[in-house]
Amino acid sequence: DTHRHLVEARADAEARLFIAGRAEGVPVMTEMKDLIEGVLSPEYSGRTILELLQNGHDAHDRLRDDGELVVLLDVDEGPHGTLYVANRGEPLTEASFKGITGTGQSPKRPDESIGNKGIGFKSVTELSVEPQVYSAAFEGAPGLSGFRFRFALDEDFDAIAARVAPDEPSLAAELRNGVAHLRVPVPLPPCLPEQVRSFGADAFSTVIRLPLRSASALASALEQVREIESSEVPFHLFLDRVSFISLHVVGADVDEEVVLTRETIELPWVDVLERSGVTAHELDLDDVSRYLVASRSVAEAHFLGAIQESVRAGHLNRNWLEWRGPARVSVALPLHREIDAG
Questions:
Q1: What is the spatial distance between Cα 150 and Cα 210, in angstroms, rounded to a whole number?
Q2: Per-residue CA distances from 262 to 37, 180, 238 (Å)
Q3: Residue 170: exposed, middle, or buried by beta-carbon count in 10 A (0-12, 13-18, 19+)?
Q4: How many angstroms separate the CA atoms of 84 and 200, rounded?
Q5: Do 53 and 63 form a contact (C-beta atoms < 8 A)?
Q6: Are 301 and 290 in contact (CB under 8 A)?
Q7: CB–CB of 280/267 below 8 Å?
Q8: Cβ atoms of 332 and 339 closer than 8 Å
Q9: pLDDT tens per residue across span 243-279
């Protein structure tokens, strides 16, 4: 089908880029592998679940406030447990598929998302040797029948080499050593794992499945879930596209779920602030904490000027130049407790 063809074509393109670089004596793909595995992935160590949740938030339309994110950690599935992260936003498009399998090529504009560098997903290698992605054909469609792929294992390069250069018997070994596995997608079979099938039946848009690579990976996943649950600054304080986040750890001896909720309450007196360009609302989190959130816009021209200055100084990448519209700056003040300082 179309999605399978796109997945295989992406893998074959990586192999052809490797061959072209080899012919020119410019090992670009090997350098990219070293960058991903030696620099980018370690930089995001301990942040895998956080990055995947932020990606899930960004998948929801910027005008929504009712999005849903789920983290499910099954400590008994597989040799070392399996982690799932699912969302109800927009499924993977061809552009976002290219972003997730590329490096620094996210289709998300910086004014529309938290992540826009296209590299946060690379942190999955900390937890899993075989990350898997399942996505729906369109938002709200059951079955996860859109993009379905995992990332290449060593043995997958034999088939790729045979497709691209059948007369080069040594190419598979060269690809294994010289191409980043997280840039090489492999189609998944139509038969879905049981838990993925359950998410699909419930019309989730995208599911990331990570069979955990070791006991230490399971320990890291558990620690990351606990940190999100207990963060001094609530994780979802500014995730304004979602209203429900489930953090669920299950197994033979454990069944623990923490639900993070987010409800916006309009205030009757905000017109006083609005005269000065400030908007405000009350935010109730998890029925236990309340915040006053005040926001103000910075005009597009003024903000772009600051971005251009930062890009010239090397403090921001050029993706930020794609910013469109005003920037919104928000401050949250707790109403459920006193604060000692600003």
A1: 10
A2: 36, 39, 10
A3: exposed
A4: 12
A5: no
A6: no
A7: yes
A8: no
A9: 999 999 999 999 999 999 999 998 877 676 767 788 8
As given in the structure block, the two tokens for residue 252 are 């033979």
Mark the ranges of the chain whose per-residue pLDDT is less than 70: 39-44, 103-120, 270, 272, 274, 342
Q: Identify the three-state secondary structure at position 35.
A: helix
Residue 339, φ and ψ in degrees, nearest 5: -115, 140
> What is the model's pTM?
0.89
Q: Are 294 and 311 in contact (CB under 8 A)?
A: no
Side by side, the strands of the sheet bearing 206-211 are: 185-187, 148-151, 132-135, 206-211, 82-87, 67-74, 242-251, 254-265, 278-285, 289-298, 327-334
Q: List the structure tokens of 88.
A: 């109800």
Residue 131's alpha-carbon distances to 26, 127, 186, 209, 302, in angstroms, are 29, 9, 11, 6, 41
